[in-house]
Amino acid sequence: MSDLLSRRLALLGERANLPLLTRCLHGIERECLRVDGNGQLALTPHSPALGSALTHAQITTDYSESLLEFITPAEPDPAQTLADLDKVHRFTVAKLGDELLWSPSMPCRLPAEEDIPIARYGTSPIGRLKYVYRRGLAVRYGRTMQCIAGIHYNYSLPEELWPLLKQAEGDPQSDRDYQSARYIAMIRNFRRYSWLLMYLFGAAPALDKSFLRGRPHDLDSLDADTLYLPWATSLRMSDLGYQNNAQSGLTPCYNSLDSYLESLRQAVSTPYPPYAEIGTKQNGEWVQLNTNVIQIENEYYSSIRPKRITYTGERPIQALMARGVQYVEVRCLDINPFLPLGIDLVESRFLDAFLLFCALQDSPPMAGDECRSATDNFQRVVKEGRRPGLLLQRRGQDVELSAWANDLLERINRTAELLDTAQGSQEHVEALAAQRAKVANPDLTPSARVLAELRERGESFSQFALRKSREHAEYFRSEPLSAEDLARFEGLARQSLEEQARLEAEPEVDFDTFVAAYQASILGLISN
Q1: Would residue 242 count as lying in a domain?
Q2: Domain extent at residue 505
Q3: Residues in the chain with pLDDT < 50?
Q4: DSSP class per residue in 426-445
Q5: Residue 410 contacts by C-beta under 8 Å, 6 or more apart in sequence?
Q6: Which spans of this chain does the record mark as coiled coil (predicted)?
Q7: Domain count, the chain
Q8: pTM assigned to the model
Q9: Is residue 428 part of a domain?
Q10: Domain for residue 243, yes or no?
Q11: What pLDDT, on the 0 to 100 scale, is given for residue 522?
Q12: CATH number for 434
C-alpha cells in the first residue's frame, strides 16, 4: 500500500471531509441499435416522437440513424443516475412500436454496408457538420464498425476535494492546474489497471459472422453464424477492424494535460496522405470534414477521456485549454446483455471505488515501455482474459492475472470502505466482493455467461441477443412511465423539435465557410 494513498485516504476519512465523498457526480451514456421484431437493423428514420436528435439533451443518435444514445444528467447517487436511465428507456420503448433495443454491444446482422443509414440532423450548419463528420467516419473506418455500441461512464470528484489535497501536499500549482494534473494522473492509473474492468465486465466474447464482411480474422466458429474466442472478454475492445488506420500512431500517454492536448491538436491539423487522396468532396458533395489524422477531437478512440463541459460553439480542446479537466469519461464498458439497462448498481458502485482508487493512488509518469505494456495487457485481456494462468506484464515482470487482480481488489477495498463510511452503507464493499468471486471463478463473468448460454441453448449470437432484446422490451413495457414522467418526456421532445426548427430558420450560412471557420478554431489554437 503506497504511503501517498494511505495519507490521502486518512485525510478524506476525517469527519469534516467525509461528506465530500457523497458529492461525486455520475452520468451514463448508453448506446444501442434499433432493430425490427426479427432482429434486423431498423432502417426507419429517428422517430419525431423521441424529439430532435440534434437538440434533445437525453435522447439522440450516435453514428447511425439506427444507433440510439441515451444520456443521463450528472447525479451524486448512481442509483438516481440509473433511475434516470431507466425512465429514458421506458419512454423510448413506448414510442418504438414493434421495434426493439438490441441487447448487446456487438451489432445485429447488418444490411449491406451502403444501406446502413448515417445519422441525419437536419439542414442547419451544425446539423450538416455532424452528418459530414459521420460520412467521414464511414470513409475512414466503414459503416459496419460504427454500429458497435457501448456504455460511457462519466465521473467526477467534487471541486472542493482538490484544494484540500493540494494544500495537504504543499503543491505549488494553481487550483485549476492541480485539479487537471490529478485527473490526468487518474487517467494514467486507469490505463495501468483498466484490463481489470475488461475481465470483470467484458460481455462481448462472440459476434455475428456477417460483421466481418468476409475479412480475414483469427476467431473460431461456434456455429454457422457465430464467431468467438474461447477466452475472450470483449471483442468490441479488441483491434477487430481498426488496424491500419491513421490513429494507430496516436497514443497519448497522459503525462500532462498539455502533452495530451498537443497530441490531439496535431492530429486534428496534420494531413494524412490516404485521406488527402480521397479529398473532402466528391462530385461537389462533402464526404469528410478534412483530410487530417482525425477530423475532430471526438474521433480519437480511447478507453478514457479527460472532459470539460463546453460552451455553445466551443470545441472540447478549447474548453480543456481554457478551464482544465472537470471529469473523466470511461469509454471501454460493454453493454451487459443480461441487464435491461446494460449496467446495474453493483457495477456502478464498483466503478466508483475503482475510479477513486485510480484518483488517489500514486501515479508516476508513464515511460514508453509502460505505455506499451498497458496497451498489451489490455489487448491480452480482451482477447483471452479468462485463459487459465494468463500472464500480464507488471513493471517488466510476468504476473498471473488472478494474482494481480486480487492484489488490486485488496487495495480498491480501501476506497470502497471509505465510500461506505461516507454514505452509511455496505454497498461498495459488497460490490467489490462480487468482483472477487469472478476472479476466483471466471464462469461468473458476463463473457463466460454469454458463451455458456449460447452453448446450453444451442443459440447463435443473434438468436441469443434477439431473445434478450425481447425480454428487456417486455420488462420496460410491463411498467409504463407515470403520467407525469410521460408528459415531461413528451414536452422535452416537442421543445427539442422546436429548437431544431429555430436553428434551421436562422439566416443561411455558406456551409463551406462554416466548416472553414470550425477548422480555423483549432488552427488558431496551434498558432497561439
Answers
A1: no
A2: 3-214+255-527
A3: 243-244, 525-528
A4: SHHHHHHHHHHHHHH-GGGS
A5: none
A6: none
A7: 1
A8: 0.96
A9: yes
A10: no
A11: 63
A12: 3.30.590.20
